[in-house]
Amino acid sequence: MAGPGLYLVATPIGNLKDITLRALEVLHRVDLIACEDTRVTGKLLKAHGIKTPMTPYHEHNAARVRPRLIAALKGGQAVALVSDAGTPLISDPGYKLVQAAIAEGVGVTPLPGACAALTALTASGLPSDRFFFAGFLPNKKTARIKALKELAPVPGSLVIYESARRLAASLTDMAEVLGPRHAAVARELTKLHEELRRGALAELAAHYQEAGAPKGEVVIVVAPPGPGADGAEAPDLDAALRAALEDHSLRDAVALVAQETGRPRKEVYARALELSALELYSGKKDPGE
Ligand code: SAM
Question: Which of 104, 192, 220, 267 could, after both became Cys, cross-link 160 (CB 3.0–4.6 A)?
Fold first, then answer.
């Protein structure tokens, strides 16, 4: 038996094989599986010969079912929470259940696995060092534009869930608010018709306006603001600084390169100081210069 407590179990986002050995073991051993739709989770369990009882837990019955689940957990039961696909709580139910479990002193154990947001980000070709998961944007245009304006200054890639039906409208609004940034549309990840389409936001918007709504599920990843966001090679800051420092004072070189590269003057100045220090240290530069 799995020890008592709440287990957050990630399930596949398409390919049934994308489930961990640990997830299968826990789903097999817990007393109860709380899931969004017993028909969807039932198929997964059947495919792996798991006969654990299920109970529905979704946005329409959560307030009513949550106290029962908490009572079972406090009574020493092991309960797994799964969603229809991917990681529970990620644009799926579970947050309030986890909060309640923590408040009641019940152990919470996460079992990582598939998540469409991370799967799309890794294959997008866009910066993955910093990213912001925005979930679903509002359906209505005015609210969507407002949300995009809030997201515009975020200094990292944006990862957004969208319905295929609203994809063209959303991309059009993104091109309008976020400007000429590079983006990727990841469709049907891990499934037979998996597709990654990359390009400028305006190009992608034009493509889906023309082609119509694609089939299946999509994630949009958008490049961060600033140099390189349009997919062009970001200008090489060090090379530009070295060239400018040959003929200009530090101050003038910084002003020139900040203008050329579009990078903040503060960042260029800091790098110019680092470069000067490095060259002094390596003996390339005469300290008397
Ligand atoms: N909890 C899930 C996760 O971990 O990714 C997300 C659930 S959310 C209700 C469903 C949305 O996730 C879809 O509308 C789509 O944006 C995205 N999604 C899920 N599976 C996908 C797939 N195989 N390919 C592309 N996007 C997917």
Answer: 220
| CA 13 to centroid of ligand 1, rounded, Å | 7
Kindly give the distance from the C-alpha atom of residue 188 to the centroid of ligand 1, in angstroms, as a whole number.
9
> Whole-angstrom Cα distance, residue 180 to residue 177?
9
User: Is the sign of the CA dihedral 136, 137, 138, 140 positive or negative?
Assistant: negative
Distance 157 CA to ligand 1 centre (A): 18
Q: Please state, as a whole number, how many other Cβ atoms lie within 10 Å of the Cβ of residue 172.
A: 18
In whole angstroms, give the CA distance from residue 97 to residue 83.
13
For residue 10, give Cα distances in angstroms to 91, 109, 275. 13, 11, 46
CB 221 within 8 A of CB 183: yes
**How deeply is 59 buried, as exposed, middle or buried, from its count of CB atoms within 10 A (0-12, 13-18, 19+)?**
exposed
The arithmetic mean of pLDDT across residues 144-162, rounded, is 98
Q: Is the CB of 85 under 6 A from ligand 1?
A: yes
pLDDT digits (tens, 9 = 90+) for 62-100: 999 999 999 999 999 999 999 999 999 999 999 999 999
- Taking residues 219-231, report their average pLDDT: 87
Direct distance between the N- and C-terminal alpha carbons of the chain, in angstroms, rounded to an integer: 74
Structural tokens at position 70: 């908490």
160 forms beta bridges with: 135, 220
